[in-house]
Amino acid sequence: MGKLKLGPIADDKPVKVTVELPAPLHRDLVRYAEILGLDAGHTPTDPMRLIVPMLERFIASDRAFTTAKRTFKS
Description:
The protein has 74 residues and is mainly alpha-helical. The chain is built from 3 helices and no strands.
């Protein structure tokens, strides 16, 4: 199996988030959580706990955003 972009999810204080996802994206998120759990030798992770690390990784890897963030400091 290939290396997933997300590693283990930190066991942190839960935060309530309400979001509406398209059904195909939700299915992929559930499947990703299952694969991540299997890869780590654990039970599947709660798919909702993946949203924050995925967004953090996406933002951290967006070079244009990083540049713009430095340019538009407030």
